[in-house]
Amino acid sequence: MKMLTRIGFWLLVAAVGLFSIFPFYYAIMSSFRSGSDLFTIAYLPERLDFSNYVAVFERQPFGTNIFNSIVVAGAVVALSLALGITAAYAFGRIRFRGRSLLLMTILAVSMFPQVAVLSGMFELIRAFGLYNTLPGLILANLMLTLPFTVWVLTTFMRELPKEIEEAAFVDGATPWIVVRRVFLPLMMPAAVTTGLLAFIVSWNEFLFALTFTLTNEQRTVPPAIALMSGSTAYELPWGTIMAASVVVTLPIIAMVLVFQRKIVAGLTAGAVKG
């Protein structure tokens, strides 16, 4: 009976793994094919053709698009953590009227679908003169990353011992020093987790990036891939699209694999009291 249970467990693991990995594997295989070969089913590469990867960077400024994504995602992570850590200290350590209502309001913001706030965000960005600029995308993406950053960090902040904070105040520390020198080192697992999740959300964001940019030089990776065109108006360059998708996905997979332990530690931090 134990043997059957173990076999069933590993069969389930294999099925889930195959279901998760196969689409990306097939995208890699398709990126090495071109022409009519793309429309034939093949699960193993017959030859490695890197022409699609060369075409990605020759036909459009894809390197600039990658750089834009790095700038936007990096700035969003930095601002989300800076604002999230200070907000988490206020929500987790300071008692004030309306704290729970304000925290629930922040959570409610993240429940709205992007399309519901698209028109209002567009008017806001246009009023600030940030249309077709990277700062405009940074501002828009903050609406997606800041709510869950504040919630995760607030949960972690509430579980930190009060005695550490009280001892720092006795030694003459200000609240800012307590946050920066006492709590920040202890919050590293949660900060790494939320920072990585914010980076992934901003890196993969499509709707705001498509709506708030006009020129290809200001676009990030997702709309740049979606708007790729072939040699004619009726051609969809599937090989080039697959190659571009592989190029921008591999770094994210590498980051997740490198920080997977910190991600699990950050997500479970504060879940168990004591």
Automatic annotation (TrEMBL):
Membrane topology: Multi-pass membrane protein
CDD domains: TM_PBP2
Superkingdom field: Bacteria
Keyword Cell membrane: yes
Record's keyword terms, sorted: Cell membrane, Membrane, Transmembrane, Transmembrane helix, Transport
GO CC terms in record: plasma membrane
Subcellular location: Cell membrane
Kinase among keywords: no
Gene Ontology biological-process annotations: transmembrane transport
Transmembrane intervals: 7-28, 66-89, 101-122, 134-153, 182-203, 236-259
Domain ABC transmembrane type-1: 66-259
Family statement: Belongs to the binding-protein-dependent transport system permease family.
Protein name listed in UniProt: Trehalose/maltose transport system permease protein
